[in-house]
Every structure is written in C-alpha cells, then in structure tokens.
Design a protein that fits this description.
The complex is a heterodimer of chains A (253) and B (82). Chain A has 253 residues and is mostly helical. Chain A has twelve helices and no strands. In chain A, helix 2 runs antiparallel to helix 3 and helix 8 crosses helix 10. Classes of the chains: A mainly alpha (253), B mainly alpha (82).
C-alpha cells in the first residue's frame, strides 16, 4: 500500500495507478475537485469510475464516523500491532472472518428512474437533469437518497445542520499542506468538531466530546453530529467529482 | 470503547435485532462490524449504514479487489485508527 500511495510500485496496473491518484487528489485538495479529475479513471475503467467514486466517498464517511466516535477496531488495537506475533495472529483471525463473508459483486437491479423517484421523494421536489451524470450507475442516486433521508431524521435542527455544512465546506483543504498541518480550530465545540472531523478526524479527543455534552448534546445528538460531518465530507467530494448541484444535499449554501 | 452508547447484538431487541439479522444476511457472515454497531441507537440509521456499505462494496459488476484498494487508500491517507 505504501509504495503504491507513493507512486513507487513498479508493478502497479493502470487501474491501480488511476485509483490511487484519484484517492490522493480527493484527500489533499477536496475543495478544488472537478469532474475533469475523474477523467483519468474513466479512461481505464469507463463508467466503472462511478463505482469507485462511490467507494471513495463511502470511506470518507466511514473513516470519519470511526474516528469521530472512537469506534473500536475489529482487529488488534494499533498499540498491540507492534508485537509481530500478535500482529500475525490478528491478520490470521481477520482473514478467517473475511473468508466467511460473501465478497462477490452482486447485480444492482434498480433502474435509474426507480432510484430517482426515491431521491425526489426524499427531497420533495422534481430534479430534472440534475443527477443525469449518474445515469450509468443509479446506485449512486440511491446512496444520495439515503443520505438525504438520514439528514432529515437527524435530531439536530436544520439551522445547526446548515452551520455544520458551512464549517465543513470552509474547512475543506485547498492544498496538500492544509490537509496535513495543525491549524487553529473554532472555539465553538460544535464547529470545532466539524472542523477537526473534516481536516483530521483521527485527532478527535475525549475532551471535545465532553464539550459537546456540556453544549447540550446527548448520545444521539453526538451520533447525529458525527453523521452530519461525515455526510458533508462525502458529499463535498461526490458533488464536485460527479458534477452535481451542491444544494442537492448541502443546507449551508 | 466508543464515545457514545451502543446496543450490542446480544442485547438488541425489536427493530434493532432485526437490523442485525439483516446485516448478517447481507454480509453472509456472523460478523457484526463495530462501525455498524455505533449506529444502533437508531435502527433506521444502522439500516442506512448497512445499505450504503452494500452499495459501495457489493453492488454492481466491478471486482472486489480494486474497491478494497480504494477503501484502504482512503483509510490510510485519513490516518483512520479503525
């Protein structure tokens, strides 16, 4: 993985190079992404580029949920992985569990029109051609509908969600330096949570969670805040790379 | 331990227990990922997480290995502990 990310894997395939190039670009400069950034991947994967785009966005969601809420690792904690026998044992157990899973691709049977109805119902309005770029892969339309439905069942009010979306948008790195460095975070605990969750979610601290509780959020509120931050981060990449209107999901426009 | 309360599979009842069963059917194993359990305060949110995971990693014709490459690369660059 490390040589591939560093562009030093001599035996990498064109698909692997295109995938890693897109992942790196979407990590370093998400604020500057554009549909043309998907073209190198389209050149080798065709419309499959949209499948991989969905994986990329989904893992910007999942990794943030994991870090913002301190989800315990399935395998050994990082501190124990330093001990080689324990690390090998952990890898062995993980491989046994993965072998028991059905990992084969499954057909996606819904039509574009069917997924579009779900999204339009969630939004309460017709969309015209707004999501036409996703016509070859309607599962992305369903994924957006799921995010809109989740946003609308949040225990946080619309004004707070709009504020979170604005903070995420402002915190998106415009340069590789911004995606890696330390920066002054907002003093408001909710804005600070959204800022850290966007720039470097792994730095989320227990003290930040306690500050959220003092601000009046209970467990469900903290879950909904983490979901709002994670969803805004996946949407920031999806709408830019797929060429979709930002206000399809974002409230803070 | 997560920052928020969760309902583990053994303590789940009603709709929460049903969502855990749906997850086992979807993944084809008894493994209940911690990142799914963290949504267990609201079964509808847990159901969304599972379906989103299925859409990204299973649905469609693209092979699994390049999808795993993308997932691992995003996790690595984000320094995700999970």
């Amino acid at each position: 993985m490390v040589p591939l990310l560093a562009g030093q894997a001599a035996d990498a395939t064109p698909l692997e190079r295109a995938l890693v190039g897109l992942v790196r670009h979407a990590h370093e400069v998400p604020a500057a992404l554009a549909p043309t950034d998907l073209e190198p991947l389209r050149a080798v994967a065709g419309d499959g580029a949209l499948d991989y785009l969905l994986v990329l966005c989904a893992f910007h969601f999942i990794t943030r949920i994991a870090d913002l809420l301190a989800v315990p690792p399935e395998a050994l904690p990082p501190a124990l992985r330093r001990f080689e026998p324990l690390r090998r044992l952990g890898v062995g157990v993980a491989s046994i569990l993965l072998r028991r899973m059905d990992l084969a691709p499954r057909p996606y049977t819904r039509s574009f029109e069917g997924a579009l109805v779900q999204l339009e119902t969630a939004l309460g309005r017709r969309l015209g051609d707004a999501v036409a770029p996703l016509r070859p892969r309607p599962k992305l339309v369903e994924a957006i509908a799921l995010a809109v439905e989740e946003r609308d069942r949040s225990s946080l009010d619309r004004a707070m969600l709009a504020g979170v979306h604005r903070v995420v948008e402002r915190a998106l790195p415009c340069s590789p330096e911004e995606s890696a460095g330390f920066h002054a975070r907002p003093s408001d605990p909710i804005e600070a949570f959204a800022f850290v969750g966007t720039r470097y979610a792994y730095r989320t601290t227990h003290a930040q969670i306690e500050a959220l509780r003092r601000a009046g959020l209970d467990d469900l509120g903290i879950l909904d805040l983490a979901v709002a931050v994670a969803d805004a981060n996946q949407w920031a990449r999806l709408h830019r790379l797929a060429g979709l209107p930002r206000d399809l999901f974002s409230l803070g426009t | 331990m997560p920052h928020i309360a969760t309902v583990p599979p053994r303590q789940a009842t009603g709709d929460t227990a049903e969502v855990y069963r749906e997850l086992r059917r979807m993944s084809g194993s008894g493994l209940v990922a911690q990142v799914v359990q963290v949504f267990s305060l609201r079964p509808a949110s847990m159901r969304r997480m599972i379906r989103g995971w299925e859409l990204a990693m299973w649905a469609g014709d693209e092979p699994r290995a390049p999808r795993e490459l993308v997932a691992a690369a995003v996790s690595r660059l984000n320094d995700c502990h999970y």
